[in-house]
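seq:
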Amino acid sequence: MAAPEVFRVGPLIVSGSMIVSWIIAAVLIIGAQLICRKATTVPSGAQNFVEWIVESLLNFLNDILGVPLARRTFWFFATIFIFILALNWFGLLPGVGTVGYGEGTSFWDFEVTRPFLRGANADINLPAAMAMIFFVLWIYWAFRDNGVVGVTKHIFGSKAEFGGVVGVIMALIFIAVGFLEIISILIRPVALTLRLYGNVFGGEALIDSMMRMVPWLSWLIPLPFYFYELLVGLVQAFVFCLLCSVFTAMMCRHDEAESH
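struct:
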């Protein structure tokens, strides 16, 4: 579940998945700086492609979160989508997970046990870290937009107006439902972690199994599954971003305030 150690820097254990995440972060940051440095009023080339991605993501999030909330939180959701997608696709490159320290007496039976590079989302630590970062931000956004009273009413408050005895009964029911909602909220980062990790790790295991079926055809048999995993990598990045934005919208979106 966790990538094995490649080397140490003092007390810091550096794994293959950490190296991959640093490489992708550096590529995205440097690439964004270079593109923005040469930005023109009429975009072309790489700037046009990047602006298309950003505009598409913003329009998508506007529909889910509403324009004001989307503008405030776009930096996180866009970053998490692009970062996860780049990590997933980078993990499919030849050499990732297959070059490193290992055991074996010949080329055909050599097994890499400590790869220099490892798919970052196939290491449960990174999906867990991203899920926890979102959970902390979700708490901040929830209390910033609703306040303590608003969050409490959202979780425990009655969703319909009833009077008399029926109102008391419904209030008790919604209080009980509120405790279930709290459990659901606490489970969200776990579900986000396992969904992303499980799909990426499962894809790696699938390709590895195909490579081992016929060793001398290990370059050919997994090829169709590589194209499948390209699609899975895109879908998983989209699903992680979508679920995070939906969870945020459920708590923070206020359409009546927008219309006003």
